[in-house]
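Re-running the complex after MR caught last week's input typo. The corrected sequence lines follow. Everything else is unchanged.
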Amino acid sequence: MDGTVETAGETPVRRRVAYVLPVYNEQDNIAVFHEALVGATSARADLDFEFVYVDDGSRDASLERLVELRERDPRVTIVQFSRNYGHQVAVTAGLDLVAGTGAADAVVVMDTDLQDPPRVSLEMIERWEAGAEVVYAQRRTRKDTAFKRATAWGFYWVLDRLASIEIPRNVGDFRLMDARVVAEVARYREHDRFLRGIVAHVGFRQEALLFDRDERYAGESGYPLRKMIGFAASGILGFSTAPLKMISRLGFAISAFSLLLACYVLGVRLFMPEETVPGWAFLGVGMFMLSGIQLVMMGVIGSYLGRVYVEAQDRPLYTLAMVARDPASGRGVPA
Ligand code: UDP
Ligand code: MG
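Corrected-run output:
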C-alpha cells in the first residue's frame, strides 16, 4: 500500500450543463441548429447536457420540429408557452425550470437562429471550469445592418450615462451562468425584463469572451424597431431613475432662464422707456415649447408609473402550455 486513497468503484461526479434556447418561429433553423449544437457539445463527453427549448408561442411548425428532436434526443426538453411572451420572458422560463429543479451546474443561454455559434459556448464552459461564474459573449464584429448597429450604439451610449450599474457593450444574452448566478437571477421577477442588466446587477465573477456574431440562418428577426425601442426603454427605466431627476433639473434650468428674462424685461422697462419688449411671437413660441417639454416630462413620469402599475398587478410572468422533460434522466418533471 502506498497510502493513496482508494478510488476504484467510485463514480466521478459528472458536471451538468443546461442550454436555454428560446424559439420563436424558427422552423427552418431548429434542425440545423440542434445538429450544430450536438456536434459541438459531443466534444465534451465528460459533461451531461440538457437542451431546454422554450417555444415562445411560435406560429409556424417550430413545435413540431422540437417534438421531432425530442423523439431522437432525450436530452431535449420542451417548454411551450401558451402564447408569445417575448424573448426575455422565454429565457426566464428556461432559467426558472433549471433553477427550480437544480438540474444543472451551469446554464448557457443562446439564440436558436445560429447567430450565436455553438462552438463559442464550449469556450465559455472552459472559462467556467477555470473559475468564471458568468461568461458573456462580446461581439467583436456584427453582421447586422448599419441601422441596427447605429441604434444599438446610441442605446448603450445613453444607458452608460444613465444606468446605476455598468452594462457591458456589444453583449447580448448569449452567456454562460453558474448555477449560483442562475438561482439569483431567478429571484428577479420584474415584468419589464432586461436580463443582461439583471445579470450585471447580480455580480459574481464575470468575464467577457470575444466572438464574431454570424448572420441569421433562416427566417426573420423577431425584433422589429418597435420592440427594440420598448426593450431599450426597459433597460433604461429598469436600471435608472436618472430621467426622473432630470425633470427637476430641467425645471430649475427653465426657472433660472425665466428669472433672467424677467430681469431683462424689468431693465428695459426701467431704463429704456422708449423701447418696448417684443410681444406675441415670443409668447407663442414659448408657450408651445414649454407645453411640449411639460408633456414629455409627464410622459417620463408616466413610464415609471406604468411600470409601478404593472408590478402592482403582479401577474404571473408567463403561462406554460406544456413541459416535456425526460423523467428517466433523473431531472424530474415539474408540475
Ligand atoms: N425569440 C423569442 N421570442 C420572440 C422573439 C424572438 O423567443 O418574441 C427568440 C428567437 O427565436 C431567437 C432569439 O429569441 O432564438 C433572438 O431573436 P431574433 O433573432 O429575432 O433577434 P435578433 O437576433 O435579431 O436580435
Ligand atoms: Mg437573431
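None of the earlier attempt is carried over here. Residues 1-6 have pLDDT under 50 and may be disordered. The beta strands are 16-23, 48-55, 76-81, 106-109, 134-141, 171-178, 206-212, 320-324.
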